[in-house]
Amino acid sequence: MIVEEAMEVSAELVDAVRRLLPQLSASAAAPTHADIERIVQSGASHLLVARDGGSIVGMLTLVIFPIPTGVRAWIEDVVVDAQARGKGVGEVLNRAALEIAARADVRTVDLTSRANREAANRLYRRLGFEPRATNVYRYTLD
């Protein structure tokens, strides 16, 4: 299994993101080629994909940004194809993201995970993530 950062947008990448995203969120709109291009071309976003036997079986987005308290990062939209779960895909994706963050002198890496995603939550704790006593708020702009 290998992890690579998407540096250009191909039909294969668009198809993979469109196949994987509904496994993470039933309400997320299918991204267009232009949507994925915006992510790949962003200086802040790192779209990582995991390949097993050449096929894309998982993805993760790492966002790195400077703020007054230091360089921070968020891991978002981690999804592993249902047929590839339990094979370590999520772990290799997260480890790759943490390596990129370390090279960027990131101070902390945060993520959120729903409580019912038990396997994912076990993985994050095993990797060294610690739960924070905080509230997460969302404001939706329409």
Provide a compact summary of the structure.
With 142 residues, the protein is of the alpha+beta class. The protein contains 4 helices and 5 strands.
Commentary on this structure:
With 142 residues, the protein is an alpha+beta fold. It has a single domain (2-127), classed as Aminopeptidase, CATH 3.40.630.30. The chain is 34% helix and 27% strand. It has four helices and five strands; from the N terminus they run βααβββαβα. It has helices at 11-24, 33-41, 89-103, 118-127, and strands at 2-5, 45-52, 55-67, 70-80, 108-110. The chain has a five-stranded mixed β-sheet, sandwiched between helices. A hairpin with a 2-residue loop joins strand 3 (55-67) and strand 4. The longest helix is centred in the last third of the chain and has 15 residues, at 89-103. The protein is globular, with a radius of gyration of 15 Å.
Topology:
Elements: E1 2-5, H1 11-24, H2 33-41, E2 45-52, E3 55-67, E4 70-80, H3 89-103, E5 108-110, H4 118-127
Parallel strand pairs: 4-5
Antiparallel strand pairs: 1-2, 2-3, 3-4
Helix pairs in contact: 3-4
